[in-house]
Amino acid sequence: MYNTKEIEERWQNFWKENKLFNASNKSDKEKYYLLVEFPYPSGSGLHVGHVRSYTALDGIARLKRMQGYNVLFPMGWDAFGAPAEQYAIKNHIHPKKAVEENISVFKSQLESMGYSFDWDREFSTTDPEYYKWTQWQFLKFYENGLAYKAEKEINWCPQCKTGLSNEDAAGGVCERCGSRTEKKLKNQWILKMTSYADRLIDGLKDTEFLEKIKTAQINWIGKSIGAEVDFKLKDTEDILRVFTTRCDTLFGVTAMVLSPEHVYLKKYEDRIKNIDEVKSYQQEAKNKSEIERTDMTKEKTGVKIDGLKAINPVNNEEIEIWISDYVLASYGTGAIMTVPAHDERDYEFAKKFNIPITQVIAKSFIGEDESKIREDKPFTERNVVNAIIKYPTENKYLCVQNKKFGWINFVMGGIEDNETPIDAAKREIIEETGYTDINIEKELEFIYFDNFYAAHKGVNRHITCHTVVGKLNSLEEKERSEEEKDLADVLWIDEKELKEKLTTNAHKYDATRVLNNEGAMVEDGIHINSGFLDGLNKEEAIEKMLEYLEENNCGRKTINYRLQDWVFSRQRFWGEPIPMIHCEKCGWVPVPENELPVLLPEVTAYEPTETGESPLAGITEWVNTTCPKCGGPGTRETDTMPNWAGSSWYWLRYMDAKNDECFADFDALKYWGMVDLYNGGMEHATRHLLYARFWHQFLYDKGLVPTKEPFKKRVAHGMILNSDGKKFSKSSGNGVRPEDMVNKYGADALRTFEMFIGDYEKDASWNEEGLKCCKRFLDRVYRLKDKLNEKDTYSESLENIINKTIKKVTEDILSMNFNTAVSALMILTNEYEKEDTISKKDYRILLTLLNPIAPHITEELVNINNLGEAICKTKWPTYDESKLVDSVVTIAVQVNGKLRGSMEVPNGTNNEELIRLAKELENVQKHLIDKEIIKEIVVPNKIVNLVVK
RNA sequence: GCGAGUAUGGUGGAAUAGGUAGACACGCACGCUUGAGGGGCGUGUGACUAACGUCGUGAGAGUUCAAAUCUCUUUACUCGCACCA
Question: Are the CB atoms for A614 and A600 separated by under 8 Å?
């Protein structure tokens, strides 16, 4: 019928020759900046996943251009980094050469898809003209004290022989090669990203990122507000500083725990009597992989330090100090105070090593239910025990039901002065239920408070509850007193029903604690055993404790972040050289700006070295240089930047890509401002976006860019999965190559299909049948040319649907609901097919609306049918509001909310008339017989509902 | 464990200021076209029922004249973070 290849090439050349998609930096038009993450030009070529997001934004770009915007829609290459280097090593070609080849494949693939990129602004992060400015910006960080060199334990991948950021080595596995990472000390360049932590959170307010992206970033930064507390180290001048979010629990501290890397272990080596044991534990921790260390299912380990003790600043108690690998060196101060009563991990540790557990917070049900007390009666204090007793053989629990009020609860009663809670429980069980063969196993560790009106004594009880747990060995019993029999019935309640049937929240709480076998008491409550904090709730207690700590100079309010500074060094060849020179006399000296870029030297071997140094370290003629400051001998930094560096400012370069005076002219930066819409994968929601925002915020602070934030709106496309719903992977060899699909069905069909495949934000499974159907749809559009008549106005019968479709397609594309936009165009096509003939204008409007998604075939059809100027040179259509209204509407008629009929009426028929007509419907009348209408509900133009009785 | 999200026919998915659930497709069935295949065209297609009807948006409650949509509870799956003190 038609040759897609021929048509596509013709129009791609037409766009190129006429430079139709080049954005101008000077224009009266309103600007619109669309950005897709620039690809990594890998050896495997373009993926169907790329096609999805590029087509989506291309559609928006084409539509916006036709709407009269000056659209910037650029493309470039993120070509530095380990994968390009690995690829080069594997295929024995220079990375530069490999990158060039890959880029040319990628570019021709992109061009064959018909994307409307402004190729005049293309660049690669590996171009010296680009990385000159990446280096220049690094120097700005350095000048402002935000780049520093530090000896830092890094994640080391023995396979790739390189240092990795925490991000690249998440979970103790190298992101690139999947091998286990080790820890290694290295002197690294680090960017002080943590000093922007708050800004990175606050700045989100100025963006319209997807909510889930905002939360992901906030979680990643992991801000937590707490306090530093200084414990005196007994018999020394030192203090042991810890970070805690719960300084209110300081009276519950029963141990201190240091991370195995803590500096005091070295410093006080001589005092530690069991230093050998400590050292071997440190060694063990070091040898463990990150995975083993962070495996939460494993049991806690640790060693008590014999010879060091800490002093609790609130009560001067001496506290034992331990080391354990559950305390991380990298967070807070690398040491913690242990409050086993109220922290799960500390509880587990304490149980394992028999560390005392001191309850300092008690759950309280007081004030929860005012109806339980009588305001006119006095309060009395009482100690009470609840007995949770299991049936001898089944999962049932012993309860009693009050005959007068119906309340159900566990056996409970007061504890007399000479009794333990266990004694009291036994006595009460015998009295209340008659069972005698009782085995109390334990008393729960944590008490709680409750209150109620004790009717038989005429007083309100303020009770302190102890809970005991046990079972009956047998159902042996003795007769209960008449009084008890009158008061309550004995019930056995199944484990599953327990929480529903128990009356009070306090007893439900007890049931939960026992059934779930709960450990630490982590809920909020009232402070006890806490000196000046007793009786306070959590917030009050934290505030008061902070005051105390500050007055006594032993602590202060502090904020901690999960986010860490950005390790900016890589021991690799294929990256931007870090433009620093080391001089024996002057230390680290920046390369003068006029000597930038520091070019990568030509080398023959770029494989990483066994020593862990960058391959650059071996090239003495490159390394040896003179110190820019004193003129003496100097050596160049041989580490290179991570591949996140080049992508941390690339959107700025697009604004003025050929500038050789500066990274981009300030007027150009001002003209384009924020990226209006930035699309990329969810996998970049934290790392790339945070690095990019950090970088941009810094440039803003230095007055180098005009906006606080780089991106206004960020969206994320769903992945294209294979037909089994799994990720495409190289190893399983199930990839779909876009060029194969283009050859078979054409670029337009592939574009249309990937837009129709489903919700843009959700993952979608590849299915070639669906692609065929989209090709069929385009064929149908093509065949409509046979119905053309000579008229140049909309066909009257189609006017309404045409206007509706203009509205729908415009809104849907701009709101990224591409699937429903395609669906609307299919519906319009169906309508056209029902007509005997269609006008030129009818046809042209369909082709125009379809153009952003299928640009080649639509231009071709306009051209061969003499429908006027090329679509991409014309205005995007607007709809006529007055033509959107249907003259006749269908009204659904319901009786009691159930559909009983429908009727066609003129639009705007009044309510009385609608009700009258509705009642006349045969099927409706049937349901009105012998019924009285009590309510008539009308939603104009939609529904009539008759409520009958 | 914490955080976020998702759940609708045989399938992909439509429909949320609450208002005819299943648009548009795929698949399937039947028919027409064709020597046949492919392709095209047409009709039908949530379940149960002979039918009137009844049921139906993961499950269970609730609010309402009316719930896929709002509230509460709950299950499963996906993603992110995870011994973060």
Answer: no
Residue identified by tokens 């000390």 is A185
At A733, give phi and psi (nearest 5°).
60, 35
Strands (E), A613-744: 624-626, 633-636, 675-680, 711-716, 720-721
Identify, with chain letter, the residue nearest to nucleotide B64 (CA–C1'): A897
- The residue behind tokens 């049918």 is A865
- ipTM more than 0.85? yes
pTM of the model: 0.89
Å between CA of A833 and C1' of B31:
21
Q: Kindly give the pairing relationship between strand A361-364 and strand A448-454.
A: parallel
Helices (H) and strands (E) in chain A, counts: 29, 34
Angle at the Cα of A46 from the Cα atoms of A733 and A163, rounded to 5 degrees:
80
Could you read off the pLDDT of A8-37 as tens digits, one per residue? 999 999 999 999 999 999 999 999 999 999
> How far is A201 from A191, CA to CA, in rounded Å?
18
Within 13 Å of residue A138, how many CA atoms lie on the same side as its CB?
A: 32
| CA A438/CA A430 separation, integer angstroms | 9
Q: Which nucleotides of B are covered by protein (CB under 7 A)?
A: 3-6, 12-15, 19-21, 23-27, 39-42, 53-55, 65-67, 79-85
* Nearest-angstrom CA–CA distance, A899 and A270: 87
Query: Does the pLDDT of residue A255 top 60, yes or no?
Result: yes
Q: Give the C-alpha separation, A275 to A270, whole Å.
A: 8
Give the residue with minimal CA–C1' separation from B19: A943
- In sequence order, the β-bridge partners of residue A626 are A633
Determine the distance between A166 (CA) and B82 (C1') in angstroms. 14
Tokens of A149: 């060199």
Indicate whether A173 pLDDT > 90.
Answer: no
Compute and round to an integer the Cα radius of gyration of chain A. 37
Q: What's the average model confidence in pLDDT over A52-57?
A: 94
CA geometry: angle at A647 spanning A641 and A652, to 5°?
Answer: 120
